[in-house]
Design brief:
Layout: E1 16-19, E2 24-29, E3 35-41, H1 51-61, E4 79-82, E5 84-85, E6 88-89, E7 94-99, H2 121-128, H3 145-161, E8 165-173, E9 176-177, H4 188-196, H5 204-219, E10 226-233, H6 247-256, E11 261-266, H7 277-280, E12 284-287, E13 290-293, E14 301-302, E15 305-306, E16 311-317, E17 327-331, E18 336-340, H8 350-373
Helix pairs in contact: 1-3, 1-8, 3-8, 6-8
The protein binds flavin mononucleotide and ligand EPS.
């Protein structure tokens, strides 16, 4: 059984995970541990970091802010541990902590023995056998996306200096679809429009229809899945490489680290399988002395290398695993079939709060590759 770790001295093994080549990002802690955090190594020295911009970015992801998100309220205040002097990066790795202030581990008392369908309880029990603190989903929880957002907010500051901006929106929930980004005409103002709405959508009336779909599922003790579309503007052509150095693979590894992501597509994605070459090919054209494409079915990546057109991708999020309906599971101790009821605080649709998380993942992934290009500039 899980104890409330804020009140007892029980210690667990810690787990962390890392990604990145030139910019290495390590995320550590757990949802019901004293803290979560992130270390970034490979950032250039002497770069000013705007802590208020980080706070504003974290607030877009934070739990507890609407009836359509988990009620767990957290201040999500970023604390600098190392790597910042007089507001500028040093040669030390940059480490931030966020303290967990609102854990309720009793909600998870039963799930070490009776795992929740579709969450990580079962596979974590197989791998770690109760040696890590899985209350709240432990290191598998979406809470771990808060430190990812710190890294993302910092990456966005550096990308902005290079004229690159990133924005995402809730592309669909169940069968309701927002207006997609125009793959050629998309502009930063679209990102501002999304951020001005209560649900992060381009078309507010579609947002209301999405709210209805979520309400309907909630009234049945259920959850809904959804998709997030993300775009990078201003990315120069030539970033990436062939095969395993490709931009799609590089970004996808970071995207799939976000809990509940079950699919990633770039440009026309899965739809291109039903098209002909003449429908899917993007004709080249000159725009002054710049090469552009007239359409953008390729989503800004050809051969794993950026083409200079807007980079467009979509991520599919599964419905929240923890639902209030009765479900079938097993007792791992007794080896019996069981029925279970999940209580506690959960997002009815994870895709809503995932919108800034996807932006963060894309920002860190792009900065990682761009730092390789600029290695000799610093
Ligand atoms: C922003 C966000 C919020 C989430 N909130 C919840 C939640 O409240 N309850 C839950 O059971 N799962 C939630 N999830 C999903 C689980 O963390 C995830 O399904 C679980 O860790 C298993 O990982 P997998 O789905 O990638 O296999 C959330 C995911 C994201 C991205
Ligand atoms: C706390 C956050 O979301 C959590 C993500 C989550 C999960 O299983 O992923 C389960 C819930 O955890 P708890 O039961 O501790 O409230 C969510 O509230 C957050 O995103 O900051």
């Amino acid at each position: 059984m899980f104890s409330d770790t804020s009140k007892t001295k029980k210690t667990y093994k810690t787990v962390s995970s890392s990604f990145g080549k030139n910019l290495k990002v390590t995320i550590f802690g757990g949802s019901h541990e004293p803290h979560i955090g992130v270390t970034m190594s490979g950032l250039p020295d002497g770069i000013p970091i705007d802590l208020d911009q980080i706070r504003r970015f974290l607030a877009r992801r934070a739990p507890g802010n609407s009836i359509f998100t988990t009620p767990r309220k957290e201040p999500d205040e970023p604390e600098v541990l190392s790597g910042l002097l007089d507001g500028k990066t040093t040669s030390e790795p940059l480490t931030f902590l966020i303290r967990n202030t609102n854990t309720r581990s009793g909600d998870y008392a039963a799930h070490q023995d009776i795992p929740r369908p579709a969450h990580a309880d079962y596979t974590a029990a197989v791998k770690y056998g109760g040696t890590i603190n899985m209350a709240g989903g432990g290191p598998f929880s979406a809470r771990m996306t808060a430190p990812l957002c710190i890294a993302g907010a910092i990456a966005l500051q550096l990308l902005e200096d290079r004229g690159i901006s990133i924005g995402a929106h809730l592309y669909s929930i169940e069968k309701v679809q927002d207006t997609p980004f125009d793959p050629v005409q998309v502009q930063t103002n679209d990102f501002a429009v999304v951020r001005s709405h209560s649900l992060p959508v381009l078309n507010e009336s579609k947002g209301h229809a999405m709210e209805e779909a979520i309400r309907a599922a909630m009234s049945e003790g259920d959850s809904v899945g959804g998709m997030v579309e993300c775009c990078a503007l201003g990315l120069p052509p030539g970033v990436g490489g062939p095969m395993y150095d490709g931009l799609e693979g590089h970004l996808s590894q970071i995207f799939f680290g976000i809990p509940a992501v079950k699919g990633v597509e770039f440009g026309n994605g899965f739809d291109c399988a039903s098209l002909r070459g003449s429908q899917n090919n993007d004709a080249f054209t000159m725009d002054g002395d710049r090469v552009k494409t007239i359409t953008n079915h390729h989503g800004g990546i050809l051969g794993g290398i950026s083409s200079g057109m807007p980079l467009i991708c979509r991520l599919a999020f599964k419905p929240t695993p923890s639902i209030a309906k009765e479900q079938h599971s097993v007792s791992l101790c007794n080896k019996t079939n069981e029925t279970m009821h999940i209580t506690g605080r959960h997002d009815p649709c994870v895709a809503i709060r995932a919108v800034p998380v996807v932006e963060a993942a894309m920002a860190v992934g792009l900065l990682d590759l761009l730092l390789e290009c600029d290695k000799f500039l610093y």
